[in-house]
């Protein structure tokens, strides 16, 4: 998609903003003029909100944002990376990096590393101190200096901290919303975060399946409406380019509660409205870390190295193109019958060599497969599959552990083969990909490279865990070579797994 340039922008400003974005995005392609110098952003955090219950509730404002913008469902980590609880969840939203970087694994905040990975409002203050930042919350670790966080630092221009606790959110949320609405309408915030806690409290008290939970969603929706009205009623609204994001920190099981590894607890979403976001759009490649990245891009602040990607950045991962071919389960009876989440059909130009594979085994994992997180992680929980946080949408999976759960001959030995990419002899190219590998003796995971059809040579062998890692391998292209082909070979016998995603030759 190519967002239109908002009226009143100069070409120089556009070039500067685009350059900043390019720095922030690294390898990602930047659409022309994705940010505006008049860009402003409001992030609304609704704790413990389940997307399907938001859709079912009397929630005209949240549903209106979905109709006018983007709805993107995604999943979180689970232990041992982090619990599906508020500390890690809001830290991920605020910092744009996953818990293995920001360090918050549970609500003790032990190990927090906000110094290296600050919240997006603090990043804005560091880069553009003239901009106005605002945060308001009634869960104290978000904004209170005397609590475990604070997730949003004292560098934020103005912070409001109230104390909701379990039953108090119903009275404190309206105070947060009223104060934030006044700020948004009468002051000049460039970036704001507003937190509302009552939905989570209702989940704990009554369960996500309850009428009380729907009622809490409806009350919070009214407060969201107050915030949207405040933005719309700004005297200068017509000259401003607002992006509105709504997100949550974790899900809830139907009977109430979270922290564990079920899909209900790991469920999150991003709702977004603003220039360049098609009305009624739905995406599968957006993750929670993208909230901060989008907010930063909106105000033209670079954030090199964060995990999040701005919403305006296009999805160019070839694995995601196989989504229409995804199928429902065959042998994996633990995965809900309606979930379409795997295929053995590779993207155009790619292939899988199963000539060394044994026969039989669990159909879904007979050789490299292409699968979604929702599907793969439900094959077996709590074995680190949930830790694959840097893969997006569809990724490639080789899983000898799951394959072995049904009678087979031989061992798992499968090779994923890329297209032949053109190269120039004597140059250096960088192969990058997201990898998630759980190691065990007896397993092999190798990256091999072949130039002009010559015998593949091993350029990398994994001998230890590589959990949710962005990997990169420098390739020295031999003189005279005109193409390169990369292979990912995995073999094992009831060992663990390897996933790769977003494979690129830079
Ligand atoms: Zn909770």
Automatic annotation (TrEMBL):
**What InterPro entries does the database record attribute to this sequence?**
Alkaline_phosphatase_core_sf, Phosphodiest/P_Trfase
Source superkingdom: Bacteria
Task: Tell me which UniProt keywords the record has, alphabetically.
Answer: Signal
Signal peptide region: 1-34
Is Isomerase a UniProt keyword of this protein? Answer: no
PANTHER family noted in UniProt: BIS(5'-ADENOSYL)-TRIPHOSPHATASE, ECTONUCLEOTIDE PYROPHOSPHATASE/PHOSPHODIESTERASE
The protein in question is named Nucleotide pyrophosphatase
Which source organism?
Streptomyces amritsarensis
């Amino acid at each position: 998609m190519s967002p239109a340039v908002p009226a009143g922008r100069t070409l120089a400003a556009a070039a500067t903003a685009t350059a900043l974005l390019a720095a922030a995005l690294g390898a990602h392609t930047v659409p022309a003029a994705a940010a505006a110098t008049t860009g402003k952003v409001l992030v609304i955090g609704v704790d413990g909100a389940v997307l399907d219950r938001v859709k079912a509730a009397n929630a005209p404002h949240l549903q209106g944002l979905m109709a006018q913008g983007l709805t993107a469902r995604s999943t979180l980590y689970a232990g041992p990376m982090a619990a599906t609880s508020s500390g890690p969840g809001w830290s991920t939203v605020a910092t744009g990096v996953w818990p293995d970087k920001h360090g918050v694994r549970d609500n003790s905040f032990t190990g927090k590393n906000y110094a290296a990975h600050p919240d997006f409002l603090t990043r804005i203050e560091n880069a553009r101190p003239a901009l106005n930042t605002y945060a308001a919350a009634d869960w104290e670790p978000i904004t209170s200096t005397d609590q475990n966080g604070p997730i949003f630092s004292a560098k934020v221009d103005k912070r409001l901290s109230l104390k909701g606790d379990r039953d108090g959110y119903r009275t404190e949320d309206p105070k947060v919303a009223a104060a934030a609405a006044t700020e948004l309408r009468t002051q000049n915030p460039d970036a704001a975060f507003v937190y509302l806690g009552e939905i989570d409290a209702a989940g704990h008290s009554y369960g996500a399946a309850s009428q009380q939970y729907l009622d809490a969603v409806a009350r919070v929706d009214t407060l969201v409406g107050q915030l949207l009205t405040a933005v719309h009623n700004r005297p200068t609204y017509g000259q401003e380019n607002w992006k509105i994001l709504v997100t949550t920190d974790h899900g809830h099981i139907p009977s109430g509660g979270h922290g564990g590894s079920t899909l209900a607890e790991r469920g999150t979403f991003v709702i977004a409205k603003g220039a360049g976001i098609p009305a009624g759009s739905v995406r599968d490649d957006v993750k929670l870390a993208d909230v901060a990245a989008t907010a930063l891009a909106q105000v033209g602040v670079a954030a090199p190295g964060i995990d999040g990607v701005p919403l305006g950045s296009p999805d160019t991962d070839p694995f995601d193109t196989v989504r229409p071919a995804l199928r429902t389960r065959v042998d994996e009876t633990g995965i809900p019958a309606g979930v379409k989440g795997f295929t053995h059909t590779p993207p155009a130009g790619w292939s899988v060599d199963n000539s060394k594979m044994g026969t039989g085994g669990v159909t879904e994992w007979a050789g490299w497969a292409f699968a979604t997180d929702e599907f793969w992680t439900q094959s077996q929980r709590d074995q680190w599959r949930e830790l694959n946080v840097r893969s997006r949408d569809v990724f490639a999976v080789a899983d000898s552990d799951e394959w072995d759960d049904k009678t087979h001959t031989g061992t798992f030995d499968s090779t994923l083969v890329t297209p032949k990419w053109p190269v120039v002899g004597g140059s250096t190219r960088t192969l990058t990909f997201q990898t998630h590998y759980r190691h065990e003796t007896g397993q092999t995971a190798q990256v091999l490279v072949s130039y002009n059809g010559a015998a593949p040579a091993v350029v990398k062998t994994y001998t230890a865990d590589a959990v949710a890692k962005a990997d990169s391998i420098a390739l020295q292209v031999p003189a005279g070579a005109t193409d390169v082909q990369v292979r990912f070979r995995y073999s094992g016998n009831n060992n663990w797994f390897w996933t790769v995603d977003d494979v690129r030759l830079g």
